Amino acid sequence: MKLQGTMQVNQKNHLEIGGCDTVELAREFGTPLYVIDETLFRQNCRAYYQAFTESYGATVIYASKTLSNLAVCSMVEQEGLGLDVVSGGELYTAAKARFPMERVYFHGNNKSPEELRMALEYKVGRIVVDNRYELETLNNLAGEMGVKVNILLRLSPGVEAHTHEYIKTGQIDSKFGLVIENGMAMAGVKRALQLPHVQLTGFHCHIGSQIFELQSYAHAAEVMMGFVHNVYRETGFVAEELNMGGGLGIYYYQGDRPRPVKEYADVLMTAVKNTAAALDLPVPKVIVEPGRSIAGPAGITLYTVGAIKDIPGIRKYVAVDGGMGDNPRPALYQSKYEACVANRMHEQPVEKVSIAGKCCESGDMLIRDIALPSLQPGDILAVLGTGAYNYSMSMNYNRLPRPAMILVNNGRADLIVRREDYCDLIRNDVMPDRLRSNLVKLASSR
């Protein structure tokens, strides 16, 4: 098990994070509980800023789909990064956090006209156009509003990223972007250059997520710069900006070998510069979009152990008070996590168990076959590396309220997302009058 950031074992034999005892956090705020290590989150932001912005003049924008709320947006802004949003909800969150709109990039493969209008009203820095339909819609909306909007075109470079099938995004067979290989991308460029209310500034690609093989990024950069060269030859347009997406992998489980951010920056920027030189092109402004590698390691989730079922010779199930409702990734991607008994950190593993969630699904298993000390109901289990795509993908299946989230730093714990209650679950439910009257009749007849 790998402790990261400010995590350590204190004198009580408890897991500590951000100077806070996790057992006390569970007692004060309840479980399940998302905990974000502010120090590590900010350190990860700074690692990107130093590696890309200070070293190469590149722009770093945080992928808010990873983890988005008012506090996170505020920290990202304070650390000098931009923000990548993919929906009206994420854009609204950024606006409410007073994030500088000129540093916001609006992504998404099917933005609605209402979302595009919202982006134009907020005057976001760039809209990353995914397809021809969006291009035409955006141009018409901008014309109606009397503005000209800066855009990037999202391209599919056909680069193989060695990661899970569901989080590959740069291959030809993808719902994202205009394909380079079959001419879709070039046709999109030529159309964008004809339209009066959009200003094409460059191109975007994203090859996938949880990537450890840095040469995939180098190859993608070479393909993208080759396309920039072809566009110049056919149209005379020289791309000023090249957004290479994100996707750098993090440590979740033994065998994961994340690469340093500086090494990632050196590989990517060298590939862009060398290819530009070979093609006699100016080096474009490079943009990267990290998300998981900033938020993921900074988060843990605390659970309370409940029922334990031992099937001799088969499996020992240990159920916790959360599961796929607060972390659907194991069910979706077969993702693996490490965990520890937060209230008994020095005890040695003595048995292999499987951590089950409380949803009515056989697939609601957080961790299969993990070696842990002998567990008892009431123990606090900490699952590590849950800062990315846990809260943002959480749900109310089985009408379970979503957990609270706290931000810890220097012994202080601040609530940044309130725990949902049962009233929240029915807040948007509406009872039609005809059903209400039936209920009254039934009640009076009893």
UniProtKB/TrEMBL annotation:
Gene3D superfamilies: Alanine racemase, Lyase, Ornithine Decarboxylase, Chain A, domain 1. It catalyses: meso-2,6-diaminopimelate + H(+) = L-lysine + CO2. Pathway: Amino-acid biosynthesis; L-lysine biosynthesis via DAP pathway; L-lysine from DL-2,6-diaminopimelate: step 1/1. Keywords: Amino-acid biosynthesis, Decarboxylase, Lyase, Lysine biosynthesis, Pyridoxal phosphate. Its EC number is 4.1.1.20. It is an enzyme of class 4 (lyase). The active site is at C360. Homodimer. This is Diaminopimelate decarboxylase. The gene is lysA.
